[in-house]
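ok trying this again, last paste got cut off
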Amino acid sequence: MSHIRPLVPLLITAGILIGGNGLQGTFISLRASHEGFSTSLIGLVGAGYNIGFAVGCIYVTRVLRAIGHIRTFSAMAAIASASAIAMLLVIDPTFWFFMRLLAGLCFASLFATVESWLNASVTNANRARTLSLYRLVDLGSVTAAQYLIPGVGIGGFQLFAIISMALTLSLVPISLADRSAPVAPEAIRFDVKKLWNISPLATIGCIVVGLTNAAFRSLGPIYGEEIGLSVTEIASFMSAGIIGGVVLQYPLGLYSDKLDRRVIILVATLGATLAALFLAIFAGGDEWMNLAGIFVFGAFAMPLYSLCSAHANDHAGEGEHALVSAGMLFFWSIGAIIGPLFASVLLDIFGPDAMFIYMAVVMVMFMAYTVLRMGTRPGVPAEKRHGRFRNLLRTSAFFNKLAGAERNGKGSGGKRR
């Protein structure tokens, strides 16, 4: 624990940030519906966050190098907090779109700041424990945050204020931590053509994950509302999908290290497809069937990002892993921009079941493409791979570095100033 103790303020800050972000994502969708926004407009508002997130992924390194970690975090937390309160003052879908875009840009920078700082502070001796704690913080804070919604209610100003307070209070632990800060990180490169050449399957896979999982996160509350779930049941529905995403991460990852990863990607995609069809055809408005269905969907769909990233790293050459980690997150963001928009239109026209039909269709197309790639390119034998499966969060490219640094036999980058 002596190695972990200096990182506790960063982990507390991460918990407050991730919880506030998870709360905001679910709440904004429900509040937008409460304010009379159409499902298509709610999808547009959700896409705004992902547009900002994609832009933030590209430019955050420049900001960190220009003004440092603490000032970057302070500025972005203040802007994100103000954007949350501003949405209460102006109830308008266009305004909310731009506020969510601004929030996405800020959260991409905030997560990158925390994870870059963590990456510079850990050593191989405490890396695994830090990653485990960070994942526990992620799961616990997002799950707990969902239940603030039924506890407080979606009307009034209270949840807007709580979100703003959370983002402001996230400044406290990081400000009271060690006054030294890590050196500015190296710039993260983006080379779309090179990334495609490394692994077309992984590139398409990350877009598919964005198309489907982001639609669930943005429109899952609206789906729950339209099938007649209460606010508490919607919170449980969203939490079940998030918790389900943890269950099969390591079993699927373990088998992907031993077998052709594309086989495991196929299995995971098939499982997610069957769960989506179950939700669309059989679950109806039954709470328990929906909870079971979304739990299984999350269990198979959520690991796909990590599986695709591992597959891309299998084909990456020396010095290309940073490009892969940044590129996978960027392509996920592209899918996450399109997914909520397209799914919201379908949900608006055809009703709630259309959301999971859409996901099933996307997954089936991805399975077909995976089979095609398996016939085009041989798999990488387990003994020739550059690293093992890593359970990755879609927060910043620096988490991939944090999780993958020991793969390259590197220590912490613990230089400080």
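PB: full thing came through this time. The CA atoms of residues 201 and 370 lie 7 Å apart.
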